[in-house]
Backbone:
C-alpha cells in the first residue's frame, strides 16, 4: 500500500492557522477514511520555509486522528513528519494536549 503524502508546500503557507482551514484540508485528504486504514502511513512534509503551524490548524487537520490513535506513539507511527525540530517540538505538544483534553472531556 502506497503512503499518502501531505506536502504543506502545496497547501499555502508559510503560516498555517485556523481550525477551519485545517479541517478543510482534513476533508481534502480524506483523513477520516485514512484513520480507518490500519496499515496506511501518512508522510507529512513541512518545507523549511514554514514559519508557523498553529495548534488550532494542526488539530483541525490531525486532531481526530490523534484521538483515534489514542497515544502519541500510535499517532506518530502512522503520521511521519518531516519538519524543522522546533516545529516537531510544537507538534509533540499539540498531540499531548489533544489527548489530555480528550481524557478530561470523557472523564478518564
Residues:
Amino acid at each position: 500500500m502506497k503512503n499518502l503524502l501531505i506536502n504543506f508546500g502545496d497547501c499555502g503557507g508559510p503560516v498555517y492557522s485556523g481550525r477551519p482551514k485545517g479541517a478543510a484540508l482534513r476533508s481534502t485528504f480524506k483523513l477520516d477514511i485514512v484513520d480507518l486504514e490500519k496499515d496506511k502511513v501518512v508522510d507529512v512534509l513541512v518545507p523549511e520555509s514554514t514559519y508557523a503551524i498553529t495548534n488550532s490548524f494542526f488539530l483541525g487537520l490531525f486532531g481526530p486522528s490523534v484521538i483515534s490513535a489514542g497515544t502519541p506513539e500510535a499517532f506518530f507511527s502512522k503520521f511521519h513528519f518531516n519538519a524543522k525540530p522546533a516545529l516537531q517540538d510544537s507538534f509533540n505538544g499539540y498531540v499531548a494536549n489533544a489527548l489530555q483534553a480528550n481524557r478530561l472531556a470523557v472523564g478518564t
Q: What stands out?
A: The radius of gyration is 13 Å. The mean pLDDT is 92.
